[in-house]
Amino acid sequence: MSSIPTLDGITSQTIQTDRLKQHILTSGDSGTPVIFIHGNCSSATFWEETMLRLPAGYYGIAPDQRGYGDTEPLTIDATQGLDDMAADIRALAQTLGLEKYHLVGHSMGGNVAMKMLLLNSAEILSLTLVATGSPYGYSGSMGEDGAPVFADGAPAGGGGGNPDFIRMIAENERGDENQMAPRNVMRAFYYKPPFIPEREEDLLSSLLSTHTGEAHYPGNFVASENWPTVAPGDTGILNALSRHYYDASGIVNIDPKPPILWIRGADDQIVSDMAMFDIAALGALGAVPGYPGTDVCPPQPMIAQTRAVLEQYAANGGSYSEVVLAETGHTPYIEKPAEFDQHFHKNL
């Protein structure tokens, strides 16, 4: 059973796959399946309303990924660049007997979904990338081609997590007195202020279900001669997402190529060409001392990178559409559900 209250119409259960015990939420059990993959510092709870709004003939499956929610918290092996998390989702699909399914990934979940395309795109009917991370991961790359900034992976990785935010997740802090309190981070960055969702308490519980530490969020780190003197370690999500280990640009060469919808908010501060969680962008803004300058360590152009890869995906025989919702932050399916569904349902 879920440790977080669920909406009417949502079923909570734990499935034993050949990889781990995975907690999932479902909306129905017949029709064409749609698998929803949540982002960082969240869980399957974020998808409940979206699953309940699926058109007739579809049903939703939203797993908690390892290190989040009520799934068995196995270590995230950063050196696999999210391949372990993609394999978890595919093992779940196989355990449930799903031969074909639609796939939806939000933020870091989009990064996992792109790795699933590389695993076996023939199983995937369509892909919806919601405010997705770049095909070159999060932090540590530059230019539209995603070239690494430094050979050791700096400035990305587990050393870039805010210690106050991490501590308050571990302490299950639900207040709003500290600027980096999880509630305030959600309000400032998950959504475009002043939006506050009706289910804020449950979504906050979802964020607080994140497992912290070297094995999960943010991960470990190693010393570096490069700014800001730390580089990615070998465990944990921020390392797995770093350019040092993560590269999904190979989706341009897969066959078959399912249609891709890329939908995002115009005012997203988490994934952008000047993202507020990219340490290089923070350095450029003067928020991190010792910044060596944009010629040495430029902010990651996340939007430009994603568009460049998807353009090549289309040039190589695939198809994609990009939709940008105005006055919307990092979670368009929660902030603008009607507008989101209009495009999402069309892609199914």
Please render the helix and strand layout as text.
Blueprint (H helix, E strand, L loop, with lengths): L10 E6 L4 E7 L4 E6 L10 H5 L5 E6 L19 H13 L5 E6 L1 H13 L3 E7 L10 E2 L4 E2 L14 H8 L11 H9 L9 H9 L3 E2 L3 E2 L2 E3 L6 E3 L4 H4 L19 E6 L13 H6 L17 H14 L4 E6 L6 H4 L1 H11 L1
Parallel strand pairs: 3-4, 3-5, 5-6, 6-13, 9-10, 13-14
Antiparallel strand pairs: 1-2, 2-4, 7-8, 11-12
Considering the chains and any ligands shown, give keywords for the structure:
348 residues; Rossmann fold; eight-stranded mixed β-sheet; 18% strand
Shape: globular
**Portion of residues within helices:** 25-40%
Largest sheet composition: 8 strands, mixed
In round numbers, the mean pLDDT is: 98
Structural class: alpha/beta
Strand content: 15-25%
The CATH architecture term is 3-Layer(aba) Sandwich
Instruction: Report how far the terminal alpha carbons are from each other.
Output: 29 Å
How many H/I helices? 11
SSE order: EEEHEHEHEEEHHHEEEEHEHHEHH
Number of strands: 14
Name of the level-1 CATH class: Alpha Beta
